[in-house]
């Protein structure tokens, strides 16, 4: 079982990110379950979504309290919400930011977790370039694919093309590739 | 073919394949994505021969369904929470008139205080309105139950509610199989109404029945529900033969045959319960789980048989009978009248509070250790209720608890669940 928790704000595509990740895993022949944290649906409110991925059918329906990976779509949540709660010691963290983990004031995290497990990705900027809108989820999922290997970039692209059409699909797929390369080949990104 | 789909969208596609002729719905919270999905299928021409009626309230939604069904149309609607309550009067009419309407209830809490999250308060408040109530454990079962529901409803001339947990199932994406049009057509015969309102041959339905026969009418309504136990079983068996998977039926046993402790539950919590039960069984604990799939009619004999080896039963309930305690556990106790064992009521998961493995483990440890009370509230925040109760015990007249608790917590924000 691999459990991902995604934090963001209403309007950033947090629920869609969990859905896309589950769809990518399904495309890989895995079992996957995605669900939102069921808050009031309003723009800007903190939102959490979850995705479980496994080789066996998933029966469990509790929220994910001990994630293997955390995706933080909005860095302004870092100091307001308990985003790191329950993160496993070998867990991964991805933060949507142009600043480094150290610049974000999260050096203490690097002491507890292996540094290569922590990364920031300028996902909103990548999305703005590729989509014309700062919706960071595809770029972050691309980065998550590179960081964890839980799904391939091809499966993620296939999920994006399944969910979206036309320019939106193309833009999101390009942003996902950018996010993937940002982690995979940081020198070229 | 398996697909990764949102529960609501999967149900929308399945209902469309049941070829409803009239779908009525009130498009406001607490409505579901299901009717949104169906309305799109109608508008895009993918679902033909179906009229989608946007009405002005849930009372009207059920009333339109009654009118359409009485005129011989296969009908569908969906609602939840306060919306279901607003239908209450019409619900009793639909069952009393013997109209085979199928409705999804995306189970949610009831206010006040306002709470949009999942529990079973809505369907439980209307458990005795004469409709059949089926509960889905996962989205595959929710999908399958809709196909079965039409067959059961039309065979018996009774309306059926398919209850699926709001958000937990309706908003969850998971792999499932949407039955194909060919499969549904083969399983579900064309609707042949038992009664038909026709302007050319006017007649009255739902005529007045006085004291001379009202008891008999109600008795026969009960007899019909008891008969429905066989229909529900038969439909589930036929479904399994044709579709190759088990869905629906009256009960589902998970290691209950020799278990000393059995957890009885309805709906989506079953998955988490079964996870914990399996963990405990590996540690040598004699425990099983029993899912109630058909709550109305209540399969009392079957339940008593399934629990024959049990020494204690823990009924996990997502609703509360204020002033009394458990709702499902009262039915369970009645069913066990010849086999009196300890029945513990555990109220859990109200208003969207997550039911976690950790809490279930603690609960079941205390059940096995003999320290579980007759009525318990899972994860109750005792410090909060005690601070609320203290002034009352000191003689103060209580104000509204909801506001008082929010003030105490210093937050009007709900915690992520």
Summary tags:
heterodimer, A: 189 residues, six-stranded mixed beta sheet, 6 helices, 19% strand, B: 417 residues, alpha/beta, disordered C terminus
Order the strands across the largest sheet of chain B as they lie in space. 3-2-4-5-7-6-12
Give the overall shape of chain A.
globular
Overall number of strands of chain B? 15
Category by helix and strand content of chain B = alpha/beta
Radius of gyration of chain B: 22 Å
Low-confidence stretches of chain A: none
Global structural class of chain A: alpha/beta
Helical stretch tally of chain A: 6
What would you note in describing this structure?
The complex is a heterodimer of chains A (189) and B (417). Chain A has 189 residues and is an alpha/beta fold. Helices cover 38% and strands 19% of the residues of chain A. The mean pLDDT of chain A is 92. Chain B has 417 residues and is α/β, with parallel strands linked by helices. Chain B has 15 helices and 15 strands. In chain B, helix 1 (7-17) crosses helix 2 (33-43), helix 3 (58-70) packs parallel to helix 5 and helix 7 (139-156) crosses helix 9. Chain B is globular, with a radius of gyration of 22 Å. The A-B interface holds A 15, 18-19, 22-23, 26, 31-40, 46, 48, 58-63, 65, 81 and B 3-4, 6, 116-118, 138, 167-168, 171-175, 268-272, 274-275, 352, 354-357, 414, 416-417.
